[in-house]
Amino acid sequence: MSTAHRQHDRAHVADGDRSGHPAEDGLPTGGERTDGGERTDGHGNGRTQEQMRERVHEPAHGHAHGQAQHGHPAPGILGLLDGRPLPRGELDRRLTALRTGPRSSALPVPGSAEDRQLTRWVAQVLLTEQLCAAEAAARGLTAGIEHSGDTEAPPVRLDQRAAVELGSIAAAAFEGSAAVRAVYRAVTAGVTVPPAEVAAYRSAVEERRDGSDGDGPLWRIATPDGEFEARPRSLPRALAAALRAAGPGRTVSVDGWTAALLTERDAPDAPDDPAPELLEAARRIAFVRWLDHARAHRLRLVPGLEHPGDPAQPDNHHRH
Q1: Measured between alpha carbons, how far is 151 from 97 in angstroms, rounded to an integer?
Q2: Which of 85, 132, 136, 237 is within CB 3.0–4.6 Å of 180 for a Cys-Cys bond?
Q3: DSSP H or E stretch at residue 61
Q4: Buried b or exposed e, range 43-61, using 16+ CB within 10 angstroms
């Protein structure tokens, strides 16, 4: 999946009604009890929790992003959290919202390997939200998790650096879920940055500033997949030259790239006190480590919804 697709999906995967959370027994809230004491799965299919668990195979091996078994998708199941099956109804709803939304043309062709990877990616975002919702409940975290009826607090938007440091899945979950943000605050509350690290960072920045002509301006660039900011020297050389020659507001196409330079501004100077910025970076690192550990020990992934980066699943074509 391209970076542009991931950026688009992060911005939209959490859109819409967020009332589709599982009931305490891990089955859809809309299900009903049958005469035999079972709960339907929301489609009229009565299954006990044990029967749902039996549909998930034992994992062949573990990963930091959760244990996974590879094979055909497990019908109706998103994954297991602390041994409890989670229904995949919310996953299907989010995928439908993406595929029928205004940016659907930017998504992979339905049924393709890239489309299955998108499904895996959205599933991991949802599993991360469910994991953090359970953690928030266990910790009694209610401050900052505001509810109005069945709707969570509105999403937030991370800057580019924070999104990259968290990774696309954790960033999307952070942006869309108040519970993820509450757990982030709790998990990273005790993180500190030693004064020696702050001093070393400040010294390195000063040395770089003294030995260069600066990092240059920041361009805001529009592409068919969205907008972003970048320094000219970070772009492909031919594209940067074409954008510079065309000027603001004119679209250029070169070497397979299509983009337009929207605005140009001076890059901000490095802060006099880098400690707050370094602290936020350290908190993001700590949260990612906590999340990796929690996923590995509390989540069990199901066939077809493995982590998109799992090298053992059939659609991972990333090679070094």
Answers
A1: 17
A2: 132
A3: none
A4: eeebbeeeebbeebeebee
Tell me the residue ranges of DSSP E strands in 126-277.
147-148, 151-152, 218-223, 226-230, 251-254, 257-265
Q: Decide: 261 and 246 in contact? Cβ < 8 Å.
A: yes
Q: What are the CA-CA distances from residue 10 to residues 94, 122, 152 (Å)? A: 12, 9, 17
Give one word for 176, left, alpha or beta, with left for phi > 0 and alpha for psi -120 to 50: alpha
Q: Tokens 């390195």 — which residue?
A: 204
Measuring CA to CA, which residue among 114, 123, 66 is closest to residue 94?
123
Residues in the chain: 320
Query: What pTM was computed for the model?
Result: 0.65
The Cα–Cα gap between 293 and 241 comes to 45
- Which tokens in the block code for residue 155? 């999403």
pLDDT in tens, 99-152: 999 989 989 999 999 999 999 999 999 999 999 999 999 999 975 565 444 445
Strand 67-68 versus strand 299-301 pairing type = parallel
Cα–Cα distance, 68 to 112 (Å, whole number):
21
